[in-house]
Amino acid sequence: MNISEFSVKNYQFTIVISLLLLGLGLSALFTMPRGEDPPFNAPLYFIIAVYPGTSPNDMEKLVADPIEEKLNELNDIKRIRSTIDDGLLVTQVEFTYGSDIDSKYNEVVREVNGIRANLPADMLSLDIQKVTSSDVSTYQLALVSETVPYHILQDKANL
To answer: What is the CA radius of gyration of the chain?
Structure first.
């Protein structure tokens, strides 16, 4: 006996199963959590070092290289990317997805704190930031005029 024959012969059972599946689907639809900006767990961290008056070459030798060498010893690193400017270093540390974000953050903090003594003492700041889903930027623009009709403003806004 195949499944279609069983379904036709036992149509009451088929109707009950179909209604149960429909009820389960509706229940999941109405109880599913919703959010405008759902949380995501990206194992991504930024290390920002400010050392005023330092050239990019000195910043690389004195700050970037020691930090990158120490972070390369960690497990599950996908990418380390540094951007250096006059007196500013921004190092992006990205781990493979699926890594525990809290433990990886603690590892990054531990390693950076471990080399603070080897970094220049007159460095202004060294911060470690975790990327979260609340870091969403919003840009809002309003077109206002006392003399132009609303429909013209709407046409301009839709461009």
So the answer is: 28
Residues 6+ apart with CB under 8 A from 54: 62, 63, 86, 87
Region for 36 from its dihedrals, namely left if φ exceeds 0, alpha if ψ lies in -120 to 50, beta otherwise: alpha
Indicate the pairing of strand 125-130 with strand 88-95: unpaired
Convert the pLDDT of each residue in 111-153 to its tens digit: 999 998 899 988 999 999 988 766 666 677 788 888 988 888 8
44-130 topology per CATH: Alpha-Beta Plaits (3.30.70)
Rounded Cα–Cα distance for residues 45 and 28 (Å): 35
Contacts of 128 (CB under 8 A, 6+ apart): 45, 46, 47, 48, 105, 108, 109, 112
DSSP class of 134: T
Determine contact, residues 76/104, Cβ cutoff 8 Å. yes
**At residue 108, what is the residue type?**
V
- Residue 30: left if φ>0, alpha if ψ -120 to 50, beta else—which one? alpha
Contacts of residue 100, defined as CB under 8 A and 6 or more positions apart, other chains included, come to 43
pTM above 0.85, yes or no: no
Question: Percentages helix, strand, coil for the chain, rounded to the nearest 5?
Answer: 45, 20, 35
